[in-house]
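Before relying on records like the one below, remember that each one covers exactly one chain. Contacts with other chains, cofactors or solvent are not represented anywhere in the record.
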Amino acid sequence: MREIVERILAIEKEQTRRAANNFLAEYNSGEKKHLKQLAFHKCQKKNRWVFGGNRSGKTECGAVETVYMARGNHPYRENRKDTFGWVVSLSTQVQRDVAQAKVLHYLNPAWIADITMLSGKKESPEYGVIDQIMVKNVFGGISVIGFKSCDQGREKFQGSSLDYVWFDEEPPQDVYEECRMRVIDKNGDIFGTMTPLKGLTFVYEEIYLNPKNSPDIWCEFMEWADNPFLPENEIKALSETLSAEQLDTRRYGRFKANGGLVYPEFDENVHVIEPFNVPADWYDTISIDPGLKNPLSAHWYAVDYDGTVYVIAEHFEAEKNVEYHAGEIKRISARLGWGTDASGRIRALIDSAANQKTLAAVKSVSELFYEQGINVNPNVNKDLFSGIARVKQYLNPAAGKPKLYVFKTCVNLIRELKSYRWADGDAPKKFDDHALDELRYYIMTKPEGSPPKSDKSLIAKDKERLFRVILNERKQKKY
């Protein structure tokens, strides 16, 4: 009997010891929760990145995700048995001080089967540089967490097939590309947590802007205010020690360049929204920036009764003729239930350059669109600086909520809003701005301080319906 009691006491002691070291179970489990960390873990995309300032909580994401995958107990993903992944730091010293320390913090010692060291003793791994940690997987096998540093060079990243790679801070592009090859065999994951101190690098161009609209890419910005465990007085003290430019990267995790953003007011977390069923009464017009070899950009704009603009659909394609573009515009309009004019044509704004005829063309682009059933209006205000100023007002009004929202499906407009920059002079760089041009054309058609639309009565709506019926009957008799 005494042996049984002693055995029970020993088990309870061991359970207490293990619970005391289970920081993974405590992660985001209390009243305070870091919502952006949870969004990262819940995301099912294969290439996930967190751009955050120092102390924003970004590194915790990578460390916890690594332990989840090694243990096979990820709460939001399908788990795998006996995973093999890499933690990639800029140098071995940074590995020891940051990523390695975070992983050890969330890895209960009871879960560690073995450790191999590059330097130091495995009995005290926190003081040395780890090569690999063998982790007991909940399925009964062993997972391996390998540690790599970018200063080893690309060659050291060849050969292995991996379930995941975590980049702690931004790697060189050749290392990133090599690691992408390593996860292909196992359909694995890439995730990165970084403060963008290097400016507009390949991560900005390929990940943040996502010019190819890869469905596998996801990114999020974290700042100090997103971290509920960072006291407000500490945020205030840290903010007072940094310049405005330093705050952009160190607090907000924003990418910086010599030429600033034209629309720094644009915030994906605010202005980009999930699509919803837009009332037909809100439908306004389509705006087109024409292109044949270059992309043609067209967006469908709706306005609610408070004058707030919603960009609800997008057509963006290059190297197609007018007949093709008109067909796509009609297809999208039919899907939306978009209205037509009395002649059955779809109304749209278009760049006034569409009225010009080239030496090789008998008809202008405007005329070609009209023949294809698109009644384009080229009388748009193309003043660049007035248009930019008006768009800024819609993105960030003097008071109240923004007056411009973009459906997340309008990926090309979103990308251009994020990347549009001033050149060395006073004008923006004339590059990748097709969607922004027709956004300006549309916004400049809205009178400043325009009163909200009045809600139409049922009688007024019925009159409009009957009027459309009469027009349609007349049209049928004509033909």
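The chain has a mean pLDDT of 87.
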